[in-house]
Amino acid sequence: MTDLFSLVEHPLAVTLIWPFALGLLLPPVLRWLAGGATGWRIAVVAVPLGLLAGLVLMLGRPALPPPSSTQKLPYLLTAAAAAAAMLGLLNPRPARIAAIPAALLVVGGGTLWMAGARLGRYETVDLVLLLGGLGLGFAALLGRLSQKAEADGAGRQLLVILAALGLGFVAINGGSASVGQAGFMAAAAGAGFLPWLLLPGRAAFGQAGVVAAGGSLALLAAHLVLSRPSGLVVACLAILLLVPFADGPAARLSNRLGIGQGRFGKPARLVVLGLVAAVPTAIAVAIAILVGAGLPS
């Protein structure tokens, strides 16, 4: 029994295995419980719930009321999953309309809640720059993910995975191991969910995925900035904002190389997208590692 508990609580299992397992196994369970069409539309909640499971295993049961922004994250991830589930129950057009207020409520409201009393420590100009920068970053991330969210769900999820990996490495080298670990959890949960976006009659990403997967990533980024507001972190996160914009260059490269035709055309284009999106991820991670190692910034 002791060996079993040590396996459950092993850092590798907490960070990668259990979030991946939930991301992989929860969608078919939801499909069975809620029915085929409905279950697939809400299946993307597996991503924030996989991250939530990892955080609970890492931090223990969240306190109520939560005393810190880290302890607030589990509640915000629960809210993101709930909002995504409600969006998944709507038809595409109402979901696109409701996604904006849902994202504002979960991400914007969650950021302000995590900041809490710390907002009073900033000068007015610094506060405007902080909240304005976060707002622009979130708008760019979620707005870009919402484009082609229904038509190319696998591509949207792949971009979230790469951005989460980059966030994890940036956080670790920026002085926040807990946020770094959470970034890897988000990537693992997203990787578990990714295969369900590739199957015929597959799960959907849609606007629910923008709030669930993109919102989870935005909340982690907000927590990192609020807990480690350094120039290194901000610069690297700004570079990571290029990841959601990789689909344009990737599409042009695929067309130039003649990739996209035939039976394996779609997976091949997904590979090209991943390679292109890996470039800004690698740049951000390299800068974080080099500056974190003491090289001049």
Give the arrangement of secondary structure elements.
Blueprint: H1 2-8, H2 11-34, H3 36-41, H4 46-59, H5 69-88, H6 92-115, H7 124-146, H8 153-173, H9 177-193, H10 206-227, H11 231-240, H12 247-257, H13 265-292
Helix pairs in contact: 2-4, 2-9, 4-5, 4-9, 5-6, 5-10, 6-7, 6-10, 7-10, 8-9, 8-10, 8-11, 8-13, 9-10, 11-13, 12-13
Describe the structure.
- With 297 residues, this protein is mostly helical.
- It has 13 helices and no strands.
- The protein has helices spanning 2-8, 11-34, 36-41, 46-59, 69-88, 92-115, 124-146, 153-173, 177-193, 206-227, 231-240, 247-257, 265-292.
- It is globular and about 55 Å long.
Quick recap:
This protein is mainly α and 297 residues long. Helix content is 76%, strand content 0%.
The percentage of residues in β strands lies in under 5%
Gyration radius (Cα, Å) is 19 Å
- The parts where pLDDT drops under 50 for at least 5 residues are none
| Number of distinct beta strands | 0
Rounded mean pLDDT is 89
- Main pleated sheet: none
* Gross morphology: globular
Number of helices: 13
Secondary structural class: mainly alpha
Query: Termini, distance in Å?
Result: 49 Å
Percent helix range? over 70%
Strand-and-helix sequence, N→C?
Answer: HHHHHHHHHHHHH
